[in-house]
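Usage

Read records sequentially. Each one opens with the input sequence:
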Amino acid sequence: MAAFISHGQRREDFREEFLTCSICAESYDNDTHQAKCLPCLHTYCKTCLQTLAGQRPKFNCPKCRCVVTLPGGTVDSLPNNFLVENLKEYRDLFNVAIFCGSCDEENQAVGFCHDCGCFLCQKCMDAHERLGLRLQHKLSSLTELQEKKCNPTTQPHQCEKHSKQELVLFCKELNCKTPLCAVCGLVEHRGHELLDITAAVNEVIADIQQSSARVSSRNEELAEKRSATETLQGTLNYNFVLKRTAIQEHEQKLIQLIKLQCNTAQNHLDSLYQTQTGVLSSTLESIDSLSAQMLSACEYSKHACETSNPTLIFAAQDQIMSKLHELEETVQIYLRQHQRRPTLFSKMRIIQSQQILKIHFKVCAV
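and closes with the structure output:
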């Protein structure tokens, strides 16, 4: 079955980097390099994640350093990234020779049957014509597909329980939350709250997009805090150099008299600098980690909304929404904490020249 690609996605939007592991640079496949999605929504191949995890039940994401707990104790228990398979099939429609999926002769495909859900070679296309299936089955040439006049990825998905029944409804009951055909809706889900599947998909996409927008706006606030922290780091560096120079100059003038006192002052300065630099570095690392998670989650959410079929978007809804809500709450808590500790962002005590000079003058007076 071909992948689901939204009407708005153009061929030029596709990027090959989505189909390769950023650690080993190998293309994703359905074997050792299967694409696995972490809770932070970053994706790597199974082999690289097995190397990272080793025998541990937890490890850190290589990009955002988010702690990953393996749900089943192994990398295999992590969910597959369904977007990768979608994009691979979308790419293959344009760049790779497609073979007939209806016969065993391995002939190159020239068309697609929307009812059979597979590509057809010329012989199988002719067979559809001869057997009269042309009157019932919708056929499209490969050229039409590539020109997007008729895209096989937009064909209705069928119910697994009732053959050839399209998925047209969605059950909103708490214990259901699943796409349905009309038969399932009338029989197995009678009395449940049912929605048209298109409306249900639009609701899910709207929820994801709204959460993604909120997370994105919070990331702008983080960027402002990062800028303020960098300014403090620059001021600290400048004062450090200034005071160190003052100490060294004073040491040269009074080398014999106050050598011990100058060393004490310099050590004190170094200690203050290391302490304050540690606080600022920790703040920057936390901001960068949160920012990387938020940007990745928003990008992942965008591609999920653009490229997923109804079944897959419902399957990924909980994971995506859970991560977006988690990030939103994490940023709110983080920013609240730092508002209660303004020393990290706006009132950190920078070493003043008077402190060093006061020490020196006091030493001279002694």
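Summary fields computed downstream for this record:
- The first strand starts at residue 35 and ends at 37.
- Strands lie at 35-37, 43-45, 58-60, 67-69, 111-113, 118-120, 139-141, 169-171, 178-180, 194-196.
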